[in-house]
Design a protein that fits this description.
Length: 309
C-alpha cells in the first residue's frame, strides 16, 4: 500500500520526502484525497509547476549582435508588417474596369491586369472594391465582360463587394468611393484610380491631403497596365519611392559652375566647384586675405578706415 501510494504521488510530480512525511503523519491507510490535501497544506508543489514558476535564465548577447530568438516580438507585431516594405494597395474596381473597357463596357480583365501588376512587384495587401450589383447578370445598359474574374478574385480575398440592395424595385447603392478612401487612409496605403474624389476631399480635410499625396493614376496601353513613373509630377518622388513605406532618397547631383575658377560669387554661388572640396563659405576677398596670410579682422578694419595698404 505504501509503495502504490508513493508511486501514485510521484507520478503527480511530488517529492518522495514530502510524501513519506505525510504518510507517517496520517498513516498508511489514509485516503488519497487526504494525502493530497496535506501535501497542498505543507506547500509542496509538483516539479512541473516549480519549473514554470522559476524565471527563465537571461541569455547574454554580444554587443552589436542581431541574433534574437525567433519568438521575441513586440506585442501586436505581425510578420507581414515587419518584412513587407511596400504600401497596401486599394484599387477602385469600377474606375479601372470602365477605363479598360473604354467607358462602354465593365471589363473585369482590366482589374485582373492591375492586380497582376502589383502582385509581380511583391505587394501582399491588395484590395479591389466593386459594387455588389455587379454580380447580377449583365444588362444592355450596363454590359460586363469576363464576369467570372470577379468570382476568382473574391475567392482569393482580393475583391470586396460594397453593399447594395433593392427597395420596392429600386436599387439602393452605398457609396463605394467612401469605402475606398477610408480603407486606404486607415491602412496608410495607395489609391489606384483616375478619379479625384473631389466630394470626399471637401468632406474631410485629412482625406484631402491623403488623396492629393496617395492617388496613383494609370493608363492602359494595349492591355498593359501602366502607372506613371512620376505619380506626383516631375519634381515629386519616383514610382518606387511612392509605393514604398521607406523611400530611398537619391544622392544629390551637383551641377558644376559654368565659370569655374573665374567665378566671383564666392559662397553665394549655388553651383559645384571641384576646386573647393568643402564648398568654402568665405567670400572672394576673405579667400585672398587668407592666401596672403593677412588677419581677417585686420582686413575688415582696413576696409572700415578706407586706408590704403
Amino acid at each position: 500500500v505504501h509503495q502504490s501510494k508513493l508511486d501514485f504521488f510521484c507520478k503527480l510530480g511530488y517529492g518522495k520526502q514530502d510524501i513519506c512525511k505525510v504518510l507517517e503523519n496520517l498513516g498508511q491507510e489514509a485516503l488519497e484525497d487526504d494525502v493530497l490535501k496535506e501535501l497542498i497544506r505543507m506547500g509542496s508543489k509538483p516539479q512541473a509547476l516549480e519549473s514554470q514558476a522559476q524565471p527563465s535564465p537571461v541569455k547574454l548577447v554580444a554587443r552589436g549582435s542581431c541574433s534574437t530568438s525567433p519568438g521575441s516580438k513586440w506585442l501586436g507585431e505581425d510578420d507581414s508588417d515587419s518584412t513587407d516594405h511596400l504600401r497596401p494597395i486599394v484599387i477602385d474596381g469600377s474606375n479601372v474596369a470602365m477605363s479598360h473597357g473604354n467607358k462602354e463596357v465593365f471589363s473585369c480583365w482590366g482589374i485582373q491586369l492591375a492586380v497582376n501588376w502589383f502582385q509581380e512587384r511583391g505587394h501582399t495587401y491588395i484590395k479591389v472594391f466593386v459594387p455588389l450589383w455587379r454580380k447580377e447578370p449583365p444588362r444592355q445598359d450596363s454590359p460586363i465582360a469576363d464576369q467570372h474574374i470577379l468570382e476568382e478574385l473574391e475567392k482569393q480575398s482580393i475583391l470586396v463587394y460594397t453593399p447594395s440592395r433593392k427597395v420596392k424595385g429600386k436599387r439602393v447603392v452605398c457609396y463605394d468611393d467612401r469605402y475606398i478612401v477610408k480603407v486606404a487612409y486607415e491602412k496608410d496605403g495607395v489609391i489606384v484610380s483616375n478619379d479625384h474624389y473631389r466630394d470626399l476631399q471637401n468632406e474631410n480635410p485629412e482625406w484631402k491631403w491623403f488623396i492629393e499625396q496617395r492617388l496613383l493614376m494609370y493608363s492602359f496601353v494595349s492591355n498593359r497596365f501602366m502607372p506613371p513613373d512620376d505619380p506626383l509630377g516631375r519634381h515629386g518622388p519616383t514610382l518606387n519611392n511612392f509605393l514604398s513605406k521607406k523611400p530611398v532618397l537619391p544622392e544629390p547631383k551637383w551641377q558644376p559652375c559654368p565659370y569655374g575658377k573665374k567665378c566671383t560669387y564666392g559662397n553665394k554661388c549655388k553651383f559645384y566647384h571641384p576646386e573647393r572640396p568643402h564648398q568654402a563659405q568665405l567670400s572672394v576677398a576673405d579667400e585672398l586675405r587668407a592666401k596672403i596670410k593677412v588677419p581677417l579682422s585686420l582686413g575688415k578694419e582696413e576696409e572700415k578706415c578706407n586706408c590704403s595698404p
